[in-house]
Structures are given as C-alpha cells and as structure tokens.
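Sample entry (195 residues):
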Amino acid sequence: MTTVPTDMVIVLLIAVALGVFAWLMVRRQRSVGLKRRFGAEYDLAVTRLGSRSKAEAELASREKRVARLTLVPLTAADAARFSQAWNTLQGRFVDNPKGVVAEADHLVRELMEKRGYPMGDFERLAADLSVDHPTVVSTYRAAQTIATRDASGKADTEELRKAVVYYRTLFDELLGVAPSKSPATLPMHTLPVHT
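Predicted structure, serialized as tokens:
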C-alpha cells in the first residue's frame, strides 16, 4: 500500500481551500454588484423568489434580456411632443383626476415603446425597466397599483394625485430630462386637490 506524502496532502488541502475562498469571493462580489445596481429591486426579487441565488439569477437574466434590446434616445421633436402631452395631461388633473391617471399610464407606455421597450405584461415591463432605471421602477409599481385600484373604483383623489406624481417620475427619467420648475410643469403636489 502506498501512502500519499503529508506535504502533498497539505498542499492539496490548501489549494482546495483557496479555490473555495475564491469562489465565495466571486459570488459575494456578484451579489454586491447586483445589489448596488438594482437597489430595492434586488430586495424585492429576493423576497418574491425566496432566495438570494434565485433572485440573482433572475436579475442577471434581466440584464442579458435588456442588453439584447435596441433602446434608443428620443429625438428632440419627440421629446418636445411628449413633454407637451404631459403638460396638457397634468393641466387636466383638477377637472378629471381619474381620466388623467389612465392617460398618464398610456403616455408612459407610449414613451417606453418609443424608446424601444417591448410592450407586454406589466411585470415583464417593470423587470426590463429595473435594469436601467432601478431607482424609479418602484414608483412605477406604486403608480400601477393605484391605477388598478382606480379601475375598480377604490382609489381616492389623493391616491390618484400620487399615481400621477409616480408616473411623472418615471416619465422624466425615460424622457431623459430633469423636471422643469416652470409654472406649467410644476410637480403634481403643487396642484390643488379636490375630493
């Protein structure tokens, strides 16, 4: 019977330990990178999928899917048209808050489509948005929740106002401009709310 030299066993154990350590560090770096990139969306994915590894696989899959999309910036004319449409929509809020929420949802979806996002179910669209716009996808989810409540007649005027503000946040991000402070485009919280 031949015996393996003790030195060789020690070297082999050290090599295995270093390999495991390196693998753990790579996983940790990947986790840190995904958490930094996706922010709250990372935590939401962990909660929804029940594990960090499943969530990270899903987020990496989103990155790959969105990398295959052809997302385009708006032309100056399109940006002006969308901005004007938003200003008109926002100006009608006091008279028709329910209608404005539906219009805001439609306008945001039109803008996403113009930028190159594939239209589909809401969760897929929100997942795609989370790759490049992780800080505002939660506001999009909140706006959509309120719009759904509104469709069933359960949202009050304050909720509708919040929904339009949330849609505006995403709208501005997708438009690629900082929100204007001119009187015609003041944030919705500056508008009077009538119940």
